[in-house]
Design brief:
Elements: H1 8-38, H2 44-71, H3 80-86, H4 98-125, H5 129-152
Helix pairs in contact: 1-2, 1-3, 1-4, 2-5, 4-5
Length: about 150
């Protein structure tokens, strides 16, 4: 681990939670990509375009989380199997309509926000400002998506 001047034991707890967030964010990336490819109906163009923006943003989140894990002295997994074991997001085989797709995204983004808040608290207790800052940006971005997705399905 690079000398980040952090307590190694506290970093282990932060890394463990970041691994859960990494797996869950990766799963949501895949789910969003699947929705992007498979959406049908009157809202096709809007949902297709919007989910394109979302999965690109999630790809950036995955990268930032993985890099933070490594900065804290951990190993960032990069296989489907490892990510699947870490994820709290349930992948769906098929959705029947765009509304169901968007409702699922709301729930999953909310799950990520809850996990990021927990990470932020643990990181703050560890005086890990780098992780706290990363989580603050993550939370802000995903809360905005929750708001936007929720408004689109009212």
């Amino acid at each position: 681990m690079a000398d980040l001047n952090l307590d190694k034991t506290k970093c282990e707890e932060v890394r463990g939670l970041l691994l859960q967030l990494l797996g869950s964010t990766f799963a949501l990336y895949l789910k969003t990509l699947g929705i992007h490819w498979n959406v049908k109906g009157a809202n096709f163009r809007g949902v297709h375009t919007w989910t394109n923006e979302q999965y690109e943003s999630l790809q950036g989140d995955v990268d930032a989380i993985g890099e933070r894990i490594v900065q804290l002295g951990g190993y960032a997994p990069a296989t489907f199997e490892e990510m699947g074991h870490l994820s709290q997001v349930m992948l769906a085989r098929e959705f029947r309509d765009a509304g169901a797709m968007l409702r699922a995204l709301v729930e999953d983004h909310a799950l990520l926000v809850r996990l990021a808040r927990k990470i932020s608290q643990v990181a703050a207790n560890a005086s890990d400002g780098g992780t706290t800052s990363l989580m603050d940006s993550f939370i802000q971005s995903h809360e905005k998506l929750i708001w936007m997705l929720s408004k689109s399905i009212e």
